[in-house]
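Title: Prediction job returns without error message
Component: structure pipeline
Severity: low
Priority: P3
Assignee: unassigned

Description:
Job completed but the reporter wants confirmation the result is attached to the right record. Sequence as submitted:
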Amino acid sequence: MDYCAGKLDAIRCAEWEAHFQECAACRERVDAHRMVWEALDEWRPVQVSPDFDARLYGRIAAAAGRPWWRQVLAKPLVPILAAAAMLALVVVRMPEMRSTPAQPQSPTAIDLQQVQQALDDMDMLTPVGQTSSSRL
């Protein structure tokens, strides 16, 4: 690192250069470091607008003046809580899913309990005053 940064005296620099002539791994590493240093030398930071500080402090003051619940909603807490609620729902429902083993049914098998429930549901949906014969 000191060699690439130019911090070594002439004697140490010559010793390293002699080593680089013999060691390909160190030579490749120094070349990579040089490329990074050159890229950093060429990099120019983006200029910020003259009113950047004033706008930043204005946004900070506006955020500090908001009610606590608005500050909470502005943070990623809400999506995290929603994901946690969905996960909790899956975990709570998981025992129900495991407790009823799937029973293969033939396509022609009729579940009488299911038919009775459907008929009861239809009766609930029938407007008051209509008889079952007027529905058909």
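Comment from assignee: result matches the submitted record. Residues 2-42 form one domain.
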